[in-house]
Every structure is written in C-alpha cells, then in structure tokens.
Design goal:
The chain is 16% helix and 37% strand.
Length: 104
C-alpha cells in the first residue's frame, strides 16, 4: 500500500506512557472521522493493532488524537525512549505505520 504522507512525532512522556498522540494541524486532513477505528502497523510487527480516532473531546481545535491504548504504549516502551523521534506514515485515513527515524 502506498503512503499518502509521512511526518515525524516526538514521543513526549504522556504519549510514551499512555499510548496515544495528537496529530498536528497540517496533517489532520489525512485522518478519518471521529470515532473511526484505525489500524496501526507497529514497525515490522506482523500483526497490526486497532486504535481509534478522537476529534471531539481530546483537542479544542478538533485535530485528531490517535489512541492505541496499552498495545501502543507497550510497543513504544519496548522500542524507544521518551523524547525519541519516530515516523508516522499515513497509508489511508484509517491506517498508519510507525517506524524509527534512527538509521540502522
């Protein structure tokens, strides 16, 4: 699947611990509607996880907050440190992939 766009995200402490992140305004139009289920591909993991999009109660400007819950926070903590920068590739309005910005 071809990506629509990609952007960087810094894993701030709350994102890192709680398994969610806020989408910045320039990228919000690439994401689905409030309440939609979102498929999250975590690096090279074979099995994606399911999350959801919140556009109503999370941010006053209605930009999406993406929730991946415990599965996402566990993956962040296994693979990164707080304040690491990662890449998010938007594959469709309801599908994204996380990857490392670090060269191997």
């Amino acid at each position: 699947m071809k990506k629509l766009i990609q952007f960087s995200l810094v894993l701030h402490p709350t994102y890192y611990r709680e398994g969610f992140f806020n989408v910045r305004k320039p990228f919000e139009g690439y994401f689905g509607d409030h309440g939609e289920e979102l498929t999250l591909f975590l690096g090279n993991d074979a099995q994606p996880i399911l999350g959801f999009i919140n556009r109503k109660s999370a941010n006053k400007n209605h930009t999406p907050r993406i929730y991946g819950r415990t599965a996402l926070s566990d993956w962040f903590q296994r693979n990164f440190a707080e304040k690491d920068e990662i890449t998010i590739e938007v594959m469709s309005p309801t599908s994204i992939r996380f990857s490392s910005n670090q060269s191997v």
